[in-house]
Amino acid sequence: MPETGQSEWNAQALVAAGAVLLLLTALWLGVYAPGQKKLSDDFETTYEYGGELKVLDIPQFQTMQDADNDGCSCTVYSNAIARHVLVAESGQSSDDETFFNENFSVFANDKTVDQDKDGLSDSYLFTLKDGNSWLDRVTYESRGEGSEADDYGYST
Question: What is the rounded CA–CA span in Å between residue 71 and residue 88?
Answer without folding.
Answer: 41
